[in-house]
């Protein structure tokens, strides 16, 4: 009788969660990258070993900073490539456990770095990626990073890319677009309450409840008064204004919502925005 048992072939997927919209002059981009493995992961379904040293060891015959930075115990590797002018500020595993991968980076190209993550079973892990990007100006877009998952190959051959995800950036003068905080990013940066209040305020404005919109957005501005939220506070000030409702704040909130509604009604079948632009014609990720 034929054996129809399926082999345990590892599969990896990458999901990128972030708000790609940055205000004029914005240069910091946060993203949460969710990597999921099924089919046995890199261990073939065996239990995942405990933590081990992940210090990168350059492959034999490669020059420092140019060859793949994969050590013998690197396991699954995250490779992050950025365009000219952009750089990785930090990369941290934030779920299911917290672990800083920033210092593990080993150069695998001029603007590419490898982060060993060890062996994997069937599981998902979340990574908080912080990028420092150039500011090409309003209306411009760019591919800010390409994240690749590299799986070790048997026999010491070169690892293969099994999944990829993209981080995009777009600069806008619309404070409503830029002020939103992706829920995954908010959760892992301890800004969930701020993100929820902002969204409630924008939703209220969208449906014409200007009074509630002002109240929620003012509360959000108060929450954004803490350290690390300076840019968000400035954007909220643009959205809601710093005046009483009787003197114009309600009109401003309502106008923002009406503009959103008009845009969505006017361009239901509009073509997708132009593709991202790299900082120069040679800088394709």
Characterization of this structure:
With 285 residues, this protein is an alpha+beta fold. It is built from six helices and eleven strands. The strands form two sheets. It has a six-stranded mixed sheet with strand order 2-11-10-4-8-7. A five-stranded antiparallel sheet has the order 1-3-9-5-6. The longest helix has 18 residues, at 249-266. It is elongated, with a radius of gyration of 22 Å.
Give the topology.
Elements lengths: L10 E7 L3 E2 L5 E11 L38 E5 L5 E9 L3 E2 L5 E4 L2 E5 L6 E10 L8 E11 L8 E12 L3 H5 L3 H6 L3 H15 L3 H14 L6 H11 L8 H18 L19
Helix pairs in contact: 3-4, 3-6, 4-5, 4-6
Structural class: alpha+beta
Strand order of the largest sheet: 2-11-10-4-8-7
* Average pLDDT, all residues: 78
Span between termini:
49 Å
Main sheet attributes: strand count, strand direction, barrel closure: 6 strands, mixed
Q: Beta-strand percentage? A: 25-35%
Q: Which overall shape is indicated by the principal axes computed on the Cα atoms?
A: elongated
Write down the Rg: 22 Å
